[in-house]
């Protein structure tokens, strides 16, 4: 058994849109400094699970615990009470919601499946935006360049540059973010997430569209930032090579439901997983 | 070759240019006699500065925060009224508020302060109501923002437009007559003496907007504009920052309204309607959405064209051409067509999203002769490129037609049209939204 | 009680019917292009203006038909020239283009009319007085709601039971997929504009015969109100827009009846803001979920 501290725990997370159950009773645990994989065929509800953790969606039922504290919890309410198709409806009683920015402030940062960089900004600015939430100067002081605002701005810039050096983007710092090649945009998105000082990093298909060489580099990169920034990582990925290579624990979703979890070797041998991916005999 | 200047040179150039402009405006207003046709230039500078401020404030919202708000005229209206109400001289109250027993505010801040502080008090008496106008508008915008800013793009546009209309109705309400003079005009309030006043106030406000945009808050605004969801995921509180941008933008719209009241010398709620908002929006578009420099240039071009250069179109004689169809109103038609052409074919506006820089300015002048020389060639190149594009388009059309007819033939012969997509482990979907 | 309010209610129903005819154009265009067609109110105003000029030389029925054709041509031309080239541009650009067209149409009307209010022709048949209960009113008040309901019924049938109607529903559901499925998007959009503008032209004949004059700004307010009606009913929904239009028409006239004429226009926007706060999708609208 893993006796490291639990940093993220999803309990019975269910997300139902109208009559469609996108995520069905997902139970997932991420320990400190662990890299956990979330896999499943397209439409299995992986990204929806991410959106439930980060506050983009309100889960229909279940709870999310971050660093030992339940911050999101919900149970079927209103019209959903009758329409609810999942299990464990009576288990949760509170309705705690949290906006995405608050979740980020708790130390959960994420990247997106279809890269969402700030198009009109330079690489450096993209990273600096992520540090905005930690600055304390008022809008008045910042506009009129108070001493505090100037020192905060300088510190932000220095830190952003340092971060860009670490991800090999320093040379590109003044380029427009969208002018970077695809692989570098992925790196920048990760750097931007790191700039929020996260303790948990959620990566949504970081290797999408990469060739084997690139995904190999990415794998090493993810391992490196985990150590360097003392992170716990939860990642969605389709590249089995990446998933099997670095994830200590893997969860498999299919049609919203959780069909298996375990180490890479266990997953590869699991008949349910093989059926989900390759299709069973009818 | 690109010019690079150090910071000192740049600031020295800026200070010199601004000082020169202010001196020219100041003495220009004094020296040019009222009958001269050059007086128009001064009018354009005055109105242009005011519109520049309002356009810059709208750009802060639309271009830098990505909030498509159409409430600007309503906010200017409150600003204009606030200023006017507090600066009508005590002796004129009975004449102005003739239907409302002289109104309920019987004093003028300008006179009160002038009495105790002299000339300084006079200007303080003008600046305080202006500042008050900004603050009142900001407070109202704050309240309006709470429900409205949760709406998405076009709903936000129509809701802000709606609020502006409600405000207009409110200011024309006779029950409020003792304060707002109902649907009658407000007049005789204190105005400025020299064109330098709106230029200076407008300039300072625009400078503040620029400082804001280049601060960390400005960066957060632009992040929201570029991608709301990503901005929120980076810990930016969407509502707080949208509200901030909305309130600040409205504050400056209020000051712009106060200046406009001074410029016009009389005000009435009627012209602060959707057309005024549209005009300001079009100024922003002409200058370039996301460029304050553009808004300033756009404002001056807009006022110069509508007040001065195209005047002849209404009078029947313009650039030596005279025609019977040039009668009152023709100017605005030409003007509207020009704007449509810009919107359709030049949608980045004059400046795109770039700001003025001395380096670019110097380079532009340096390269001007070479650019002029190569102009015919570039035009030829452009024309051939366009021809090619046209040919390519025609070819594509022909191909599509052929494909369609062959499909129809195949369908008629009973063949299946769709072949299953190749199965691969990743299917990539690119973001279709381009810039 | 009813005696005093009946005239206002009747007037409200009539105005509501006229708003409904305009609102359909907004709601259908929005449903398909996701665009607030700011120029729609001005197409409405121009239909009225053209009527003023045509009636001087042509008999009534010919004029009405020509006005409808004119509105259709104007609307589809606007779509072709000002909206189609920007279809792949950001949402804000096409909205700005719509505002630009509105500005152009208003200024052109200003030029043609010389800024004067034109007298709308009296259509004798619509002006006949009728007695309903204790109130006397004009024929137009009776005809408007009936005609509106008939036209809306026909439109709903068209949308539900014809091939082009099916194409419209498909396009409004998913623009891209339906173009991939071989639906001729341009044709659907053109038909949408034809229907929207044609109904607005009919609306203009009914609306302006209630008023003596017409000026270049006459289209702005009814246009905005019709848009609010469309939002109120749930934008994209034709029956929703009609219900919204009647609600706005009746409430507005009741407010006038209560002596709050200054606020009769503002009321519409209060309603808009309330509905956007309480149920942003309107009465009959469907919820959209943004994909992340």
Q: Any key phrases for this structure?
A:
heterotrimer, A: 282 residues, alpha/beta, Rossmann fold, 2 domains, six-stranded mixed beta sheet, four-stranded antiparallel beta sheet, 11 helices, 36% helix, globular, C: 292 residues, mainly alpha, ABC transporter involved in vitamin B12 uptake, BtuC, two-stranded antiparallel sheet, 12 helices, 72% helix
Notes on the protein architecture:
The complex is a heterotrimer of chains A (282), B (435) and C (292). By secondary structure, chain A is α/β, with parallel strands linked by helices. Chain A has 2 domains: 1-107 and 198-282, P-loop containing nucleotide triphosphate hydrolases (Rossmann fold); 116-196, no CATH class. Chain A is 36% helix and 23% strand. Chain A has helices spanning 46-53, 80-83, 100-105, 123-129, 139-143, 147-166, 182-194, 212-228, 240-246, 264-269, 271-278; strands at 6-17, 20-31, 35-39, 61-66, 69-74, 108-110, 200-204, 232-236, 249-254, 257-262. In chain A, helix 4 (123-129) crosses helix 6 (147-166), helix 4 runs parallel beside helix 7 and helix 8 (212-228) packs parallel to helix 9 (240-246). Chain A starts with 5 loop residues before the first strand and ends with a helix. The relative contact order of chain A is 0.17. The model of chain A has no long low-confidence stretch (mean pLDDT 88). By secondary structure, chain B is mostly helical. Chain B folds into 2 domains: 20-356, no CATH class; 360-399. In chain B, 69% of the residues lie in helices and 2% in strands. In chain B, the strands form 2 sheets. A two-stranded antiparallel sheet of chain B has the order 1-2. A two-stranded antiparallel ribbon of chain B has the order 3-4. In chain B, strand 3 and strand 4 form a beta hairpin. The radius of gyration of chain B is 27 Å and the shape is globular. By secondary structure, chain C is mainly alpha-helical. Chain C has one domain: ABC transporter involved in vitamin B12 uptake, BtuC. Helix content of chain C is 72%, strand content 4%. Chain C is built from 12 helices and 4 strands; from the N terminus they run ααααβαββααααβααα. Chain C has helices at residues 2-33, 40-54, 60-83, 91-113, 124-127, 139-161, 163-173, 175-180, 185-208, 220-233, 238-257, 264-278, and strands at 118-119, 129-132, 135-138, 213-214. Chain C has a two-stranded antiparallel sheet. Chain C has a two-stranded antiparallel sheet with strand order 2-3. Chain C is globular, with a radius of gyration of 19 Å. The mean pLDDT of chain C is 85. Chains in contact: A-B, A-C, B-C.
């Amino acid at each position: 058994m893993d006796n490291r501290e639990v940093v993220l725990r999803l309990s019975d997370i269910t997300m139902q849109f109208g009559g469609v159950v996108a995520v069905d009773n997902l139970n997932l645990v991420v320990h400190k400094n662990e890299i956990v994989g979330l896999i499943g065929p397209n439409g299995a509800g992986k990204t929806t699970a991410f959106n439930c953790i980060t506050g983009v969606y309100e889960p229909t039922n279940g709870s999310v615990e971050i660093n030992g504290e339940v911050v999101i919890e919900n149970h079927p309410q209103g019209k959903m009470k009758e329409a609810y198709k999942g299990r464990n409806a009576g288990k949760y009683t509170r309705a705690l919601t949290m906006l995405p920015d608050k979740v980020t402030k708790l130390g959960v940062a994420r990247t997106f499946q279809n890269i969402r960089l700030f198009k009109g900004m330079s690489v450096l600015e993209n990273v600096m935006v992520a540090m905005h939430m930690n600055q304390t100067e008022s809008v008045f002081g910042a506009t009129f360049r108070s001493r505090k605002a100037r020192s905060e701005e300088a510190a932000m810039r220095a830190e952003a540059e340092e971060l860009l050096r670490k991800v090999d983007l320093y040379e590109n710092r003044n380029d427009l973010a969208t002018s970077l090649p695809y692989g570098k945009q992925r790196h920048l998105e990760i750097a931007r997430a790191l700039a929020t000082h996260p303790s948990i990093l959620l990566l949504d298909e970081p290797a999408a569209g990469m060739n084997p060489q690139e995904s190999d580099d990415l794998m090493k990169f993810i391992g490196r930032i985990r150590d360097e920034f003392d992170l716990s990582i939860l990642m969605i990925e389709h590249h089995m090579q990446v998933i099997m290579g670095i994830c200590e624990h893997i969860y498999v979703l299919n049609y919203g439901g959780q069909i298996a979890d375990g180490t890479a070797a266990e997953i590869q041998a699991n008949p349910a997983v093989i059926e989900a991916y390759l299709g069973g005999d009818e | 070759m690109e010019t690079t200047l150090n910071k000192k040179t740049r600031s020295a150039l800026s200070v010199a240019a601004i000082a020169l402009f202010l001196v020219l405006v100041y003495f220009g207003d004094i020296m040019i006699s009222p009958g001269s046709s050059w007086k128009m230039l001064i009018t354009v500078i005055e109105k242009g500065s005011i519109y520049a401020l309002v356009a810059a404030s709208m750009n802060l919202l639309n271009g830098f925060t990505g909030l498509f708000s159409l409430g600007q005229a309503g906010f200017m209206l409150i600003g204009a009224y606030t200023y006017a109400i507090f600066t009508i001289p005590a002796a004129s109250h009975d004449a102005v508020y003739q239907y409302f027993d002289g109104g309920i505010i019987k004093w003028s801040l300008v006179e009160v302060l002038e009495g105790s502080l002299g000339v300084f008090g006079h200007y303080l008496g003008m600046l305080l109501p202006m500042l008050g106008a900004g603050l009142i508008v900001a407070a109202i915008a704050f309240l309006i923002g709470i429900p409205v800013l949760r709406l998405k793009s076009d709903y936000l546009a129509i809701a802000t437009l709606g609020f502006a209309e409600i405000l207009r109705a409110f200011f024309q309400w006779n029950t409020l007559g003792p304060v707002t003079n109902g649907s009658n005009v407000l007049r005789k309030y204190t105005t400025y003496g020299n064109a330098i006043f709106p230029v200076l106030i407008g300039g300072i406000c625009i400078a503040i907007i620029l400082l804001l945009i280049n601060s960390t808050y400005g960066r957060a605004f632009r992040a929201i504009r570029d991608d709301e969801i990503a901005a929120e995921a980076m810990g930016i509180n969407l509502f707080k920052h949208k509200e901030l941008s909305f309130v600040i933008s409205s504050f400056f719209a209020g000051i712009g309204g106060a200046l406009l009241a001074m410029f016009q010398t009389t005000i009435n709620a009627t012209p602060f309607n959707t057309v005024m908002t549209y005009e300001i929006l079009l100024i922003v578009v002409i200058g370039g959405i996301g460029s304050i420099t553009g808004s300033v240039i756009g404002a001056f071009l807009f006022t110069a064209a509508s007040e001065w250069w195209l005047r002849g179109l209404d009078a029947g004689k313009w650039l030596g051409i005279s025609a019977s169809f040039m009668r009152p109103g023709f100017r605005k038609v030409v003007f509207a067509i020009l704007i449509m052409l810009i919107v359709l074919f030049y949608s980045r506006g004059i400046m795109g999203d770039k700001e003025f820089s001395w380096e670019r300015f110097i380079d532009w002048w340096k390269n001007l002769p070479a650019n002029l020389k190569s102009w015919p060639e570039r035009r030829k190149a452009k024309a051939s490129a366009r021809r090619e594009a046209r040919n390519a388009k025609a070819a594509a059309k022909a191909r599509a037609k052929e494909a369609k007819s062959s499909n129809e033939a195949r369908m008629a012969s009973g063949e299946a049209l769709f072949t299953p997509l190749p199965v691969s482990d990743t299917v990539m979907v690119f973001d279709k939204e381009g810039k | 009680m009813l005696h005093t309010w009946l005239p206002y209610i009747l007037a409200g129903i009539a105005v509501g019917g006229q708003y409904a005819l305009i609102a359909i154009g907004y709601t259908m265009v929005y449903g398909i292009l996701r665009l607030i067609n700011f120029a729609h109110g001005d197409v409405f105003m121009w239909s009225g203006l053209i009527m003023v000029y045509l009636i001087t030389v042509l008999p009534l029925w010919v004029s009405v038909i020509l006005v409808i054709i004119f509105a259709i041509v104007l609307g589809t031309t606007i779509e072709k020239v000002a909206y189609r080239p920007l279809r792949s541009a950001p949402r804000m650009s096409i909205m700005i283009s719509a505002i630009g067209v509105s500005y152009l149409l208003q200024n052109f009307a200003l030029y043609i009319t010389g800024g004067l209010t034109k007298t709308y022709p009296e259509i004798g048949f619509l002006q006949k007085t009728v007695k309903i209960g204790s109130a006397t009113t004009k024929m137009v008040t009776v005809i408007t709601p009936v005609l509106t309901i008939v036209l809306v019924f026909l439109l709903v049938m068209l949308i539900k039971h014809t091939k082009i109607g099916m194409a419209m529903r498909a396009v409004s559901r998913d623009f891209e997929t339906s173009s991939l499925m071989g639906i001729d998007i341009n044709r659907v959009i053109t038909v949408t504009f034809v229907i929207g503008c044609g109904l607005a032209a009919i609306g203009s004949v009914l609306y302006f015969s209630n008023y003596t004059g017409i000026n270049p700004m006459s289209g702005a307010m009814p246009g905005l109100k019709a848009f609010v009606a469309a939002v109120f009913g749930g934008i994209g929904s034709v029956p929703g827009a009609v219900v919204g239009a009647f609600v706005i028409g009746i409430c507005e006239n009741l407010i006038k009846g209560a002596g709050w004429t200054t606020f009769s226009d503002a009321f519409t926007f209060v309603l808009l803001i309330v509905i956007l706060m309480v149920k942003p999708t309107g009465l009959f609208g469907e919820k959209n979920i943004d994909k992340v």
